[in-house]
Amino acid sequence: MLTSDNKDFQVTASYLLDLAQRAEMLFKESDDDLRQKLLEYVLSNIELKDKKLSYILNDPFKAIVETKKKSLAAHNSNIWCRIKNDNLTFRR
Question: What whole-number percentage of the chain has pLDDT above 90?
Fold first, then answer.
């Protein structure tokens, strides 16, 4: 039973990651009804006020975005030196 549950989790995670990667293309190529369903699946509390859009990312998409942000921040923090005008400079 544990193996079956684990496989179900892997399949679900795979589908969610695939959806996250193809979301823009799916949204652009879909009709209005499917666009609405995609938005409702990914976002909640969507509000447009004074030309500003606010929303809450639903899980697990929120976790995907947060993980990506952490990954990018960690990558950028590992850049400790750069070459400028053929001189090596170090960052603190």
Answer: 16
